[in-house]
Amino acid sequence: MKDTDGFAHGFDPDAVRKKYLQERDKRLVEGRAAIRDLRADQHFARYRLDPFTEYEDRDALTDDVEVAIIGGGMAGVVAGAQLRKAGVRRIRIIDEAGGIGGTWYWNRYPGVMCDVESYSYLPMLEDLGYIPKNRYAFGDEILGHFEAIAAKYDLVADALFHTRVDRTEWDAGSSRWFLRTDHGDEITARYVVMAVGILNLMKMPAIPGMELFRGRSFHSARWDFEYTGGDTHGGLCKLSDKVVGVIGTGASAIQCVPHLAEASEKLFVFQRTPSAIGVRGNRPTDEGFADDLRPGWQRERMENFQAIMGGVPVESDIVADGWTQHFGPTHSYPRDPAWSNQEYGKRIEAFDFEVMEEHRRRVEETVEDAATADALKPYYRYICKRPCFHDEYLPTFNAPNVELVDCPAGIERVTENGLVVGGREIRLDCIVYATGFEAETTPFYRRAGHEIFGRDGVRLAERWKDGPRTMFGMMSHGFPNMFIMPCPGQQAVITVNHTLITVEAAEHIGAMVGRLEEKGVATFEVSEEAEADWCETILSTYVDASPVMLACTPSRINQEGDPKALPPLSGGYGGGMGDFFGFKKLLADWRESGAFTGLILKK
Ligand code: NAP
Question: Which residues, including other chains, have CB under 8 Å from residue 218's CB and lie 6 or more apart?
Fold first, then answer.
């Protein structure tokens, strides 16, 4: 409802801002972002182990391939498929997981699904002739789809699973990348594609006493079905006499909480910040869905979604869900050129307020206990935190065996018996850490998890220490024949449906390698000038959003309350989340010109 001037009815900006700041301050406590580094942690390193596929011994191999792809998740598989289409024969995917799938390999917690609609999220549907079963796909269907792409493009037979690359190094003498793995493999490759993942590092908070707990505990991305029973769709039959605590109320937690509640004797949900829980509205795919689809339908659908995310006018909203109705307009509110910046800002804030009010009303109408409902209401701007979408999470709090433990400042400590909040020790049999992942904006060299040495021994971590340095967010000076798949904070663009930028990049890489091969090029490298130009392009459109972001509740989106922590070089093409359509055209024009402008080519 709006007043005649177009602003939200009854919206008192000062009062709302004050409430939001009060709630923010409860959470802005020292040490909130402290984590235990799982790669080096003596107690918790084992949390990274694969509970889903048995480890097998194998001999080290020595090998030469055309393309080594580090990472067998969505990016690696789609890049591999496009390279196959370009005629590349020897491709070797290497991954620490026991199979294809990346995030969908690891995340098998009960209820796991994707809240971006399936018809846009699952890539290459037209290539595979596949129509997802539901509007929003569950994890096992998504994993199966990646396995199907990998099978179709023959990417599995040569893949090395349960294998970690420990070192990637350019060898100028042979013009090849040299990769060493934790199995002692020595692989040389003409090209390397870094498809290491964007949310690939599990985040374990550093809570005092964690190592003391004597019950069972695990991270949601390594679900312990041996202990809980059941599978990715629930049925956690071994929990019926167990008291379980789940830490976190983000996108993963809200999906597994209904299953934990159904199965456990008692469930405690430890909440630091309530998520905004929008309507999901999942349903089976309409029987006639595929009847009217024309070739190119999937890209059209993805781009329609992306246009709405970026505020580009569209004739119709094909997807029509919480992302397009709430996320799109709060992030890219349509602008009347007559409005001043101040007026525009006010209108966005008023719309954001309405959206959040709607979410708070949903809590009020769903959750019966008034105090619990109150604690579940999110008080911050919609733009401050990744929204969630679910229809069973909020009703779970009406179950008699479920208790919300509100702890805005986090959990005080862990004891051998359970968790302490507000001086109260809650005894638990099991702790589920649904505490998420290091942010997407974590520098690439950390996500890659190993040292990368380019020409003349230059360390990528050193070259990028003040922020990424790339051309198109995908290639870097000093690192010949290397492609880095796009990631937020890495000088390309952000698409809410990450699949879109991934397929765009994969097609670009496939086409580029095809042309380089045709031309008989042995190596390409971004020139220093071209890289500097791209960095300048990024900096020239960089928007310092820190004044708005500082007022936000701490979250991944504002670097846990420190938005300046991200250097301006981490911006995107076109500023903010980036200009996807401009970026796409720029890549296409660059490719089509055939001139490889900005690259130094050697035959
Ligand atoms: P997350 O959104 O980062 O949530 C982690 C949760 O743990 C938050 O509620 C956080 O509280 C809490 N937490 C962290 N440290 C804590 C501490 N010391 N004490 C108490 N609570 C603590 O992680 P996630 O739920 O795994 O999701 C991560 C991302 O994966 C999502 O944002 C999304 O990008 C992706 N994902 C997508 C889907 C999908 O459907 N597409 C599903 C699952 C995940 P605060 O909120 O206060 O930080």
Answer: 47, 224, 227, 432, 433
Distance (angstroms) between ligand 1 centre and the Cα of 128 equals 32
Distance (Å, rounded) from C-alpha 167 to C-alpha 454? Answer: 11
Best residue for ligand 1 mutational test, from 252, 254, 380, 562 (most atoms within 8 Å of Cβ): 252
Which value, to the nearest 10 degrees, does the dihedral of the CA atoms of residues 33, 270, 496, 307 take? Answer: -120
Residue 573's nearest CA partner among 453, 492, 487, 482 is 492
Give the span between the Cα atoms of 258 and 255, in whole angstroms.
Answer: 7
Res 480 pLDDT > 60 = yes
Computed over every residue of the chain, the mean pLDDT equals 96
Per-residue pLDDT reduced to its tens digit, 336-376? 999 999 999 999 999 999 999 999 999 999 999 999 999 99
* Ligand 1 and 115: CB distance under 6 A: yes
Atom of ligand 1 nearest to the CA of 247: 21
Tokens of 189: 């490759």
Whose CA is closest to atom 3 on ligand 1? 436
54-96 pLDDT per residue, tens:
999 999 999 999 999 999 999 999 999 999 999 999 999 999 9
Question: pTM to 2 decimals?
Answer: 0.97
Please tell me the distance between residue 435's alpha carbon and the centre of ligand 1 in angstroms. 5
Residue 331 token pair: 């992030």
Which ranges constitute the DSSP H helices of 310-440? 322, 328-331, 341-366, 370-376, 393-396
Atom of ligand 1 nearest to the CA of 385: 46
Atom of ligand 1 nearest to the CA of 252: 25
Q: How far apart are CA 319 and CA 280, in angstroms?
A: 12
Give yes or no for residue 28 CB within 6 A of ligand 1: no
Query: Mind listing the pLDDT tens digit for each residue in 488-503?
Result: 999 999 999 999 999 9
Q: Is 558 in the pocket of ligand 1 (CB under 6 A)?
A: no
Is the distance from the beta carbon of residue 251 to the nearest atom of ligand 1 less than 6 Å? yes
pLDDT, one tens digit per residue, over 405-445 is 999 999 999 999 999 999 999 999 999 999 999 999 999 99
Domain range annotation of the chain: 62-201+439-553+564-602, 202-280+343-433
pLDDT in tens, 206-230: 999 999 999 999 999 999 999 999 9
HEC sequence for 405-444: EECCCCCCEECCCEEEECCEEEECCEEEECCCECCCCCCH
| Ligand 1 neighbour 322 (Cβ under 6 A) | no
The yes or no reply on domain 62-201+439-553+564-602 and CATH 3.50.50.60 is yes
Could you check whether 62-201+439-553+564-602 and 202-280+343-433 share the same CATH topology?
Answer: yes
CA distance 292 to 487: 34
Atom of ligand 1 nearest to the CA of 389: 40
- Name the class of domain 202-280+343-433: alpha beta
Segment 85-101, tens digit of pLDDT = 999 999 999 999 999 99
Is 434 close to ligand 1, i.e. is its CB under 6 Å away? yes
Task: Encode 240-268: b = buried (16+ Cβ within 10 Å), e = exposed.
Answer: eebbbbbbbbbbbbbbbbbbbbbbbebbb
pLDDT confidence of residue 5 = 56
Given a contact cutoff of 8 angstroms between Cβ atoms, the answer to whether 419 and 411 are in contact is: yes
